[in-house]
Design goal:
The complex is a heterodimer of chains A (279) and B (349). Chain A has two domains: 161 residues, no CATH class; 82 residues, Alpha-Beta Plaits (2-Layer Sandwich). Chain A is 48% helix and 19% strand. Chain A has eight helices and nine strands. In chain A, a hairpin with a 3-residue loop joins strand 8 and strand 9. The radius of gyration of chain A is 29 Å and the shape is elongated. Chain A starts with 6 loop residues before the first helix and ends in a 20-residue tail after the last helix. The relative contact order of chain A is 0.09. Chain B has 349 residues and is of the alpha/beta class. In chain B, helix 9 packs across helix 11 and helix 9 packs across helix 12. The radius of gyration of chain B is 22 Å and the shape is globular. In chain B, the strands form four sheets. Chain B has a five-stranded parallel sheet. A three-stranded mixed sheet of chain B has the order 6-10-9. A three-stranded antiparallel sheet of chain B has the order 11-13-12. The longest helix of chain B has 17 residues. The chains are: A alpha+beta (279), B alpha/beta (349).
């Protein structure tokens, strides 16, 4: 009798049983890809430290290399080892979609986010970024998560899926230099013009500063009722020295302010007036 | 005027050797000035590059028309840069990078000088600047606006360097001694071609192999051994100095055992520089001023003790020299290694 096969049987016919040899090969490819990607990551990271000012340009290569290695590994496993046909791909896709529905959505979102980060480069390895509630230098862009080193040297792993829901701010966008905004507050009665001159020279003479036609030093001044804010916008030559730059400029500027009798804002208490009564 | 950067102590090395194009450019600006168009000039060169010699040449070619003033130490106030009352219309000011100190309040003399330049339309200012100081001041304070004509002193060609070095000797006085067999290895050099990437405004050095055709021709024609050794020595000096006359003279001095010179002892400069950021910054100051007192370094970095520590490290790595007056100077032979190291750190731009 010519029997009709059920859906389950069709599905089981579609996929041949995977023997231990194939499983072992797949495992080997995954392990090889992992270690190769780790090795190249370490080598590129070391190389980036040697080349100094081109550090970030070399580090950009790390996620691309990783994506390439894992992409080739997946291709090799599916096409060469498991020898998937077009029909098998469709079924595999369906199963994969079902898996997503059952709870792997976030994980998948992270991986897609990782690929988007590599292709669109909203930030790169070596950049200083603010993502979600975290701020720090991008140490590694993995397929699932981005690793940041925060200013207090904490190692934070931020899921790549966050880029779909949150804005990401990159302070330097692939360059070694980065703008630093330094605010100093002086008393309203102090000579703001002289203070601005001191602040400009403190910035320009700092050992950490980087100045060029496209990276100028900008000084801004804003008067408030009881104090004046002086703001310097300048580029630090290596984003890792962001806080040293700020500290260097502030310290030297304040030493000169004191010599020039430029005061910090003082707390001013309003006199109590008995006519004013609480309602 | 004391030419303190003349490393070899021999004067007049560029009286007529090299810089002809630059001299022409300066004379064109002088001619324009006589016709009523004032374009102040900045002559910019790396340390030991020959800017003082170029200025001396301008003075020599314009007798009675120019007043030359040289500066050999940091000028602390406007009085130190005041012009003599009887100064001529054309002023030659040497080493203007001494007009500032890289610290708060250290730019007053420079501001006064720029004011003087701005309010003296009847005078033409021909100034010399250290390349690294110029780059810093131009980016930080827009110095270039005051000096529309900028003359970058180039490196000398190989033959010019050879003429410069040998001008102090009689013909045949120096014996070029070498092992002819060792030269077999030198028929190919690795050279670097500076490739300008205009869209990103960068320049990269692309390594390439250069075949030493003159050497191969000499080998083919079996020319005298003596000529080949001489060429080899000047090739090495040229490669080590990159055309910088001061560095080339230093290479010659280090290699010569009078009256003999050997290729294996010439131009072998190698510096493994290991410095932290503060040390690199101090080295950049010495590079930018060419000569700086220990006390001035301490004043800039804010600590005499730290200055002592850093200078000890720099002296230990044989990157600088310190004389009896505690003036620190860069070793000419370390120039290119130092510049490359500091550019990599972006301490100089």
């Amino acid at each position: 009798m010519v029997g009709t096969t059920t859906g389950t049987e069709e599905l089981s016919n579609l996929f041949q049983p995977i023997d231990t040899g194939i499983l072992f090969t797949v495992l080997l490819i995954i392990l090889f890809s992992y270690f190769l990607s780790r090795l190249l990551t370490i080598l590129l990271a070391k190389l980036s430290e040697i080349v100094g000012k081109h550090r970030i340009k070399v580090k950009i290569l790390i996620p691309i290399v990783k994506l390439g290695i894992y992409g080739i590994a997946v291709y090799y496993i599916l096409i060469k080892v498991l020898q998937f046909s077009g029909q098998q791909f469709l079924v595999f896709g369906g199963l994969f979609g079902a898996a997503l529905g059952f709870g792997l959505k976030d994980l998948f979102s992270d991986y897609v986010g990782g690929i988007m980060i590599i292709l669109e480069t909203p930030y790169q390895v070596g950049d200083k970024i603010k993502m979600g509630e975290y701020y720090g230098e991008v140490n590694d862009i993995g397929l699932r998560a981005t690793k940041l080193i925060t200013p207090d040297d904490s190692f934070v792993s931020v899921p790549n899926g966050l880029i779909f829901g949150q804005s990401v701010a990159s302070a330097n966008k692939g360059t070694s230099e980065m703008m630093v905004v330094i605010d100093l507050y002086i008393a309203g009665e102090s000579d703001a013009g002289h203070a601005m001159k001191i602040l400009r020279e403190a910035v320009v003479s700092s050992k950490y500063v980087y100045i060029s036609k496209d990276r100028p030093v900008v000084l801004l001044h804003k008067a408030f009722p009881f104090y004046t804010r002086l703001r310097a916008k300048a580029y630090v030559n290596d984003l890792r020295d962001e806080f040293k730059f700020e500290s260097d400029v502030s310290t030297r500027a304040w030493v000169e302010f004191r010599k020039s009798n430029i005061q910090a804002p003082q707390l001013k208490l309003l006199e109590y007036s008995p006519e004013i009564k609480d309602p | 005027m004391v030419n303190q950067f003349n490393v070899s102590g021999r004067n007049g090395f560029t009286d007529i050797i090299g810089f002809q194009e630059e001299i022409g450019k300066i004379h064109a600006a002088i001619a324009d000035f006589e016709l009523g168009k004032r374009l102040n000039i900045a002559i910019i060169a790396e340390p030991f590059g020959g800017k003082t010699t170029l200025l001396d040449e301008i003075e020599r070619k314009n007798p009675g028309r120019v007043t030359k003033i040289g500066f050999s130490a940091t000028a602390r106030n406007g009085e130190e840069i005041a012009l003599p009352k009887n100064s001529k219309r054309i002023l030659l000011l040497d080493n203007c990078h001494f007009f500032y100190m890289r610290k708060i309040g250290g730019f007053e003399t420079l501001y006064k000088f720029l004011e003087m330049v701005a309010v003296s339309p009847e005078k033409l200012f021909i100034t010399t600047w250290n390349l690294h100081s110029w780059n810093y001041l131009n980016q930080g304070l827009g110095l270039g606006k005051y000096f529309p004509v900028q003359v970058n002193v180039p490196g000398l060609a190989r033959e010019e360097l050879k003429a410069l070095i040998l001008e102090g000797y009689e013909e045949g006085e120096i014996q070029f001694v070498g092992d002819i067999e060792s030269k077999k290895k030198r028929f190919v050099y690795i050279m670097k071609y500076p490739l300008s990437l205009k869209p990103v405004r960068k320049e990269i050095n692309v390594p390439y192999l250069k075949i030493n055709i003159p050497y191969l021709q000499k080998r083919f024609h079996k020319e005298e051994k003596q000529t080949s050794v001489e060429d080899l020595i000047f090739d090495k000096i040229y490669l080590a100095s990159k055309g910088n006359p001061g560095v080339a003279l230093r290479a010659w001095e280090m290699g010569i055992e009078y009256p003999q010179i050997r290729p294996e002892k010439t131009g072998n400069f190698s510096f493994d520089i290991e410095l932290d950021y503060d040390e690199a910054f101090v080295l950049s100051l010495i590079l930018s001023y060419q000569r700086l007192k220990k006390a001035e370094i301490a004043e800039i970095i804010g600590s005499l003790q730290r200055a002592d520590e850093i200078l000890f490290r720099l002296l230990n790595q044989e990157l600088i020299l310190m004389d009896r007056d505690l003036y620190c100077k860069l070793r000419p032979e370390a120039l290119h290694s130092v510049v490359s190291f500091l550019k990599n750190l972006r301490v100089v731009w």
